[in-house]
UniProtKB/TrEMBL annotation:
Phosphoprotein keyword on record: no
PANTHER family: N-ACETYLMANNOSAMINE KINASE, ROK (REPRESSOR, ORF, KINASE) FAMILY
InterPro entries documented for this protein: ATPase_NBD (IPR043129), ROK (IPR000600)
Gene3D superfamilies for the chain: 3.30.420.40
Pfam assignment, any one: ROK
Record organism: Nocardia wallacei
The protein's name in its UniProt record: Sugar kinase
Keywords: Kinase, Transferase
């Protein structure tokens, strides 16, 4: 029997079989189309399954979600913005399978607990720095899911000193500063012409002035939010992953400086902030953990 993992991101879908020896080249990825979103997702899952009988599917989805109803409503996917019954549709596709849905931040925390840096600690925060900024919270060794399944929307915490308009309609959200589009928009406003988050990271690594400043700005905002969350949850480890987390010292020095400045309570003395070791597969790996989890756990 085959277990599948599905990642529903704002711009791409990824799927793969759950197995210890699955390689990067066996993960299927597609861009989210502007139309026919479910058709594309269905074909991706069928391709991943091959001719095997599927026993379970773990779904990691960009929020908001309604975990109890099995509905996803990511703002970035226009066809699904008002809600799509993803669990029901996947069950129709694989009638013998158990289908489990969780917020992608929760899945990231599951992956870090099972395969990554937080496996040896009880209280931690796993952050994905990408198109969106999301997190998974682990307290007492358990991943926090929340009332509706949306615990971990760290991107919509307010950042002291920032007032940018966010896609959610608010102002001063972390994602409005540290999300990929927000970073590119800010850098472009400063005269940078690189055009993409990937180029922004490359520019920061090369020491270019505006990309370095963009990463320092993001690191400062992120560090301030970490310093706010850490005393609330009494965590001792923060893991940061995603495509923007590889931007090198401008980002990481700024994070460290902001945390050192603002996380001053004595019980936070041992707080560590480290890069994830899971690369680009953390969320999908967490969906795999979800697929392997017996119902009720």
């Amino acid at each position: 029997m085959t277990q599948l993992a599905l990642e529903i991101g704002p711009a791409r879908f990824a799927a793969g079989r759950v197995a210890e020896d699955v390689g990067e080249d066996e993960i299927r990825r597609i861009a989210v189309p502007s139309r026919g979103v479910w058709d594309a997702c269905r074909e991706l899952l069928l391709d991943a399954a091959g001719n095997a009988e599927v026993s379970s599917v773990g779904i990691a989805a960009a929020g908001p979600i309604d975990m109890a109803a099995g509905i996803v409503a990511p703002a970035e996917i226009s066809e699904w913005r008002t809600g799509f019954a993803i669990v029901e549709q996947v069950r129709k596709l694989f009638p013998a399978a158990e289908v489990r849905l969780a917020f992608d931040g929760v899945c990231l925390a599951l992956a870090e607990r099972n395969f990554g840096a937080t496996s040896t600690v009880m209280d931690s925060l796993a952050i994905l720095l990408s198109d969106r900024v999301v997190a998974g919270v682990s307290v007492g060794g358990f991943t926090v899911v929340g009332r509706t399944g949306n615990a971990g929307h760290i991107g919509h915490m307010l950042v002291p000193g920032f007032d940018e308009r966010c896609g959610c309609g608010g102002r001063g959200c972390l994602e409005a500063v540290a999300g990929a589009d927000a970073m590119v928009r800010w850098a472009t406003g400063q005269g940078w012409t690189g055009g993409s988050a990937e180029n922004l990271v490359a520019g920061a690594l090369a020491g270019e002035e505006i990309p370095v400043a963009a990463m320092e700005r993001t690191g400062t905002a992120l560090g301030r939010v970490i310093a706010s969350v850490a005393p609330l949850l009494d965590i001792d480890l923060v893991v940061i992953g995603g495509p923007l987390a590889v931007a090198g010292s401008p980002l990481w020095k700024a994070i460290g400086a902001a945390v050192a400045t603002h996380a001053r309570l004595g019980f936070l003395t041992g707080l560590r902030v480290v890069p994830s070791e899971l690369g680009d597969v953390g969320v999908l790996a967490g969906a795999g953990v979800l697929a392997m989890t017996p119902d009720g756990d």
